[in-house]
Write a structure and sequence with these properties.
The strands form two sheets. Strands 2, 3, 4, 5, 6 and 7 form a six-stranded antiparallel sheet that branches. The chain has a two-stranded parallel sheet with strand order 1-8. The two termini are 85 Å apart. By secondary structure, it is of the alpha+beta class.
């Protein structure tokens, strides 16, 4: 046997009580924190119409209207005409002044902040936990239970006239919204029949109404579902009226939390599935790391061998060229010495020939010049006389020229050797 919760909530306007108004006067904001979900005017009725008939998303397949139409405002207006129009006409006939006559009682109450235009009652059996795993077919069986509750309400509260009753199956638990008008009759002032919420629904009468509705509901529920369940005991403070907006927000939050929980479960499952793949990838990366390290070591060894080989080859070439250069220097020095001696003898010979030539008679010089086409004269007038200073200057110029040739030779050899080394390195990296 399972115990079920039951709720019978009537919309209220606690902020309109004398006590609440006194609290508002003493508060900085001029308001109270007391809830107000009563249907006080046509604006509030429009919000109820919007919510109860799901006009905000046009998803009406999971709601069922068992009383009234798809326009709660029209339903209430029609009910006002049926209930109050005769009383309004009788009242107007008694009035002498036109400004006291009532043209439309519906709009008169809507504009009167002392009265509620209509009342909303919400009935629910079983909480979210109970209905969570139930199928939609099982939830639809509640239609029979709610229809019987509607009949019970008419019987228990005959002065409460129902304009619209709609069942919601799209939230966490099935529940019914009832929109109606409480009526008090035989009024001594004003119309003989008037809206009378405070007369019909008092603190005492609500306790009786709730007890009777609870008792009938569990019987009707067990009959519809072939169960033998009981209702949980009423708890103090559990009969606070929740507005349609509060219920909607609560259900939306519960649905969002449920969805987030499912997403978290999916994420955890996915993480577990990916754990093995991640471990395998880590192992594979470590293996790749070792392979790369081995390849780098191998390349280093090859490059080191190439560098050593290139250095040895270059050193051998340097040694060979150094030896050749030393030999060439020795030969050059030997040739230069021979050349200097020959040049010295030549200059000496020219120097003395010039002396002899100048001592010859003039006519003989002319004959010699004519015979050799002035070549003898240019030879004898050779600038490089046998003068120690001239000879020393020529030797200095010769030495500087030799040093410049050696410098240029060393420069060309260095860059040719560098190109050979780079070629060897490139060949080694290709291995």
């Amino acid at each position: 046997m399972e115990e079920l919760s039951y709720s019978f909530h009537l919309s209220n306007d606690k902020n309109k009580t004398i006590k609440a108004k006194q609290e508002a006067l003493n508060s900085p904001s001029g308001t109270t924190s007391k809830n107000n979900n009563a249907i006080q005017n046509i604006k509030h009725l429009g919000k109820v119409n919007h919510h109860n008939l799901r006009q905000y998303d046009n998803k009406t397949e999971l709601i069922t209207t068992i009383k009234g139409s798809q326009d709660i405002i029209k339903d209430v207006k029609d009910l006002y005409l049926d209930l109050f129009d005769e009383a309004r006409i009788n009242y107007n006939n008694k009035q002498i002044r036109d400004d006291r006559k009532i043209d439309d009682y519906f709009y008169k109450i809507s504009n009167d902040d002392k009265h509620d235009l209509a009342c909303e009652i919400i009935i629910e059996i079983g909480n979210m936990a109970y209905w969570e795993d139930k199928s939609l077919e099982e939830k639809y069986k509640m239609t029979e239970v709610f229809e019987n509750q509607l009949k019970d309400l008419k019987e228990i509260v005959p002065d409460f006239y129902i304009a619209n009753a709609t069942i919601h199956f799209d939230e966490n638990s099935p529940h019914m919204h009832i929109i109606g008008v409480p009526v008090k009759e035989n009024c001594k002032t004003g119309m003989e029949k008037q809206v009378g919420k405070t007369s019909i629904f008092t603190k005492e009468s609500l306790v009786v109404i709730q007890d009777k509705m609870r008792s009938k509901c569990i019987e009707e529920f067990n009959l519809a579902y072939s169960k033998d369940n009981k209702l949980k005991k009423k708890e103090k403070g559990k009969n606070r009226d929740y507005s349609a907006y509060e219920r909607l927000k609560f259900n939306e939050k519960a649905e969002k939390l449920k969805q987030e929980l499912n997403e978290l479960r999916e994420d955890v499952s996915e993480l577990k599935d990916n754990k093995q793949k991640i471990n395998e990838e880590i192992i594979e990366l470590n293996n790749d790391k070792e392979d790369i390290k081995k390849e780098i070591d191998k390349k280093k060894k090859v490059n080191n061998k190439i560098v050593v080989k290139s250095k040895n080859k270059m050193q051998d070439q340097i040694n060979k060229l150094t030896e050749e250069n030393s030999h060439l220097k020795w030969e050059n020095k030997y040739i230069k010495e021979k050349y200097d001696k020959l040049e010295e003898k030549t200059n000496y010979l020219i120097y003395h020939l010039n002396k002899v030539f100048k001592k010859l008679p003039e006519f003989i010089q002319k004959i010699v010049e004519k015979m050799f086409n002035n070549k003898v004269y240019s030879l004898f007038s050779f600038k490089h006389d046998y003068d120690p200073d001239v000879i020393a200057e020529r030797k200095k110029e010769t030495i500087l020229a030799e040093q410049e040739r050696e410098k240029q030779y060393s420069y060309n050899y260095y860059y040719e050797d560098e190109e050979e080394l780079e070629k060897d390195n490139d060949d080694g990296m290709e291995l």
